[in-house]
Amino acid sequence: MVQPVCWIDDEIRPLDAARIPVRDHGLLYGDGVFEGIRFYHGRPFRLAAHLQRLQDSARAIALPLPRAPDELAGIVLRVVTAFGAPDGYLRLIVTRGDGPLGIDPGPCGTPRLLVMADELNMVTAQQRSRGVSLIIAATRRLSADGLDPRIKSLNYLNSILARLEASRAGADEAILLNREGRLTEGTADNLFLVRNDVLLTPPATEGALAGITRELILSLAAEQGIPAREQPLGPYDLHTAEEAFLTGTGAELIPVREVDGRRLPACPGPVHAACEAAFREVIQRECAVPRPA
Ligand SMILES: Cc1ncc(COP(=O)(O)O)c(C=O)c1O
């Protein structure tokens, strides 16, 4: 039976019964980091990469992780087992912990670890087959000299403001530009586009999360002989692309149908189809084998 669960205070509880104190600085100030990880066939996908990024995000905000990476991996596996279904989504959260009112993290106690497992239904079957509509948001991606978008922090307001714009415009997703007006990423996904048969994505230093799916797609494209590279890109490149798609743990690969009301010629396009097939093969290869006891 499927049971949404949460590891909290060193035990696994039903998700609805998990509680944190209101003085947790994750709640008060968004002070913390997180990861979203899918599991397929009972195995977390690319767990080591996610734990590495969690560690990097935590180091970037000077937050000590409360557990070593191998302990975290052990907890994740226990949570997946408790969830009961083979496929689902994990949310690992590390907050600064409880502290007094006031932004200073100094007096906070031990960082708090939460590991949730639940279903994730953020993309409909129709969006996957027919593609999604994008707008380029007026909200700009935060600059690295304010809060580096490579940090997967508990504060997603920048993305949320852009997503509100998309919803108000009747679009499915928003792409954020950086301060220089170049493309960065979606609100919870990375952006790929194809121009002149080359698969392109903005470098993470333009203002994007260094997505684990993004990294995988770049290497799968190379393996299949599809020319692919990181390159600074502008709205013109997206408006005139041959095809485009979004990538992410939650998103997986979502084809883009239109951008700012301009229909893209191919959706889903041939590069998306090739990458999607290769992506599914990797999941099958890495996850559809029994977990060691
Ligand atoms: C802002 C943002 N960009 C990109 C991604 C995609 O990254 P990944 O493929 O590692 O899930 C995510 C999702 O985690 C995200 O929140």
Q: What is the structure about, briefly put?
A:
The chain is built from 9 helices and 15 strands. It has 293 residues and is of the alpha+beta class. A hairpin with a 2-residue loop joins strand 1 (5-8) and strand 2 (11-14).
Q: Helix fraction?
A: 25-40%
Q: Specify the oligomeric state.
A: single chain
Provide the CATH top-level class of the largest domain.
Alpha Beta
Beta content comes to 25-35%
Order of helices and strands: EEHEEHHEEHEHHEEEEHEHEEEH
Secondary structure class reads: alpha+beta
* Alpha carbon gap, first and last residue: 21 Å
Jot down its keywords.
293 residues; alpha+beta; nine-stranded mixed beta sheet; six-stranded antiparallel beta sheet; 15 strands; globular
